[in-house]
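re: that chain from earlier
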Amino acid sequence: MRLSDEQYEFIKGEVVALFERYDVRCIPISGFELAYKMGITLIPYSALTKKQQSAAMKISTDGFYMEDSSGGDYIYFNDDDGIPYERTNMTILHEIGHCVLDHTGGSEEEENEAGFFAKYAAAPPPLIHRIQPEMPEEIADVFNISYEAASYAMNYYRKWLAFGGKDYTEYEIRLLRLFEVA
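^ sequence. v structure.
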């Protein structure tokens, strides 16, 4: 399911606003750090009882976001040793997307929005442009994302260049200012 152009633009603006609000200024983007700054409690599956772990895995093998009745925000995530950091970090960014975008239903559209939120937060094209990558490995190394995610980021970056690129939007200018090198 493709989101509308308006949804993509809204989400990109929300990512930048979030980075501004929580003073995110360095690459790679850490979902763990961002969750901490936002006051979201991170709970690894390994901290749960076996019964709770089983229930969590039925919800998602990667992780999920919950808000309790008092308004507390929680991200539960699978911290199995076999899961690479890059995937766990992307899961946490995805779940932060659900929180920021005020998702409640778990619809396909909400999943796509949160997925795009994580993708954009982890490796925004204007920041990729600063490194002038020739191969996805360069993006993977700088942004500490998986090769697969870096390949998607490279394709997205190329589309971004083809359809405007350095004709920066207002939110892209704000993003670049956040990440200026002193």
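The beta strands are 41-44, 63-67, 73-77.
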